[in-house]
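Support reply, case 0932

Customer input (verbatim):
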Amino acid sequence: MNQQQLRDRAIREAFQARAESAPSSDLAEVISATIRRTSQERSLHWMPDVAARHGQRLLWAAVISLLSLGLLGVLLIGGRRDDRQSVVPSLGPTSTPSAFASPTESAQPSESPLETPHEAAFSVDAFVEVAVPGGIPIRTQPDPGAPPASAKLFPAGVPFLVADGPTGPAGTDWYYLIPAVGSTDIPAGWAPATDGANPVLVPASVHCPTSPLTSAQLIAIRPYGPIGCFSQNDTFGPEIIVSGPVSCTAAAATPGVDAPSWSRPDRRCAFVAGPSGESYPVFGDPIFDIVPAGTVAGAVVDGTYELTGHFDDERCGFRNGTVTDETRPGILLCRSWFIVTGVRPAGVSVDSVVRTVSDNLRVRSAPGVGVSSAKLEPLLRKGTKLFVIEGHVAADGYDWYHVLAFDGGLPGGWVAGADHDGTPWLAGETQACPTLPLAASALLSMNPYGGLACFGSKEIEVIGDIRCELATVDRPITGPDWIRTNRQCRFELGGETIEFFDGGIQGLGLPTTGAARVTGHFDDSQATSCVYSRAAPKPDPASVVANCRAMFVATDLMAAP
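Our regenerated output:
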């Protein structure tokens, strides 16, 4: 029997055995057994010397050919199932259950080991609104059969805060909702996410201001909007800065929950804003101790402050155990309070005008109270007007600001903005700024730092009588191109003059006199190169730069009618 005949016989016997065997028979094993049997028969027909020379090579050729044809048969025939629906099990060490049932077993529905987890429609502290026109009932419990909490409804289109949930009967998600912004007359209660087929609740859009923000912005999202806007951390909500007027009352006012140390039953402080006196409560750690003016000596008086703090304080208790129907209202109220961790007088920043609000304020040569910070004279009287050129710098428990006397009559130095307990020593001062274009006479009331405080580097126009001429000028400050020692320009105001500097005026002839419209700016970009060129004692470099920034640099000049 030649090689081709042996191969054909093996294939025929293999597929005949497959057709007659039980469904669980392994086709690979049938083919292997047939190959072994055929090989034995082949060795009887061949001459021993031929088998010795070629047996091993032909055997391997037959094995490879039979396996290749067998696998091809599986692919061609395996897709056509006979009446018994036999299957070919996996040849690997583990087998995957077939989608087809064995004829000796009843078909059983399979259960996937990877069930898709149920995802809540909303998270706690999310903003939602009712999508059902006309509103939905407010339930006392997360159950459609629970009695209404009120004759009122959750209205459509009003933002609510998700305070609890999801919970409820199997297959339903219920959420505890409270009014987020504005509508404080709507009771809190439970509402379903869907009615089974359609959404009942959908995400709501609430404008959350970013830090730093004003007290008016905070009041605009009361009562519970701040929880959804700023409760983002596992420990405390994020620290933010809020500025605005703060007022306090000494009347007994129980905050609504027990425990937090900053909850003072004998006082209540709040941001106030708006013509009708809308307010937002603030509470403080020991650093914050604002009380009505005159009631406690040394304490912070009512005023405008920049408060650092957070909402959603963990000491409100909602992370320490299960929230119940009895504890939920007080916890939510507590989470909505602004807890103060730092206080500074508002309106005190670089290039701002401030005034002292306490008497005998000490000026120092550097921020801090150590030996490297010399005490300067004189002490500042209450009401002294100052211009801030640097700060704040934290040192020795105080926030320090580098200031210059607004009228230029006193040396500059560093002062602390407030005491350890928050008592302010400085307060922001509103600078009266004239309208544009300026009359040259208006510069007199702004000298030397008013122009910088009002206009910064903005191009403005000043109208007045001028004189520009060649002159030899001894200048203690050098640096910028426009500080020249061979010429001088000035506004002439009767018996007084105010100098301005030629910053590249086209076609300026010398001398030039008469009424003119002068375009220019304060806070020139070259001002930072200013240095004091005379011998000691030298002023500190920041004061020198501030004086250069306050100089008016002209870029154009036209005759005025």
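We compared this against your earlier run and they match. Two observations from our side: Residues 234 and 280 are 24 Å apart (CA to CA). The domain at 353-428 is CATH 2.30.30 (SH3 type barrels.). Please reopen the case if you see a mismatch on your end.
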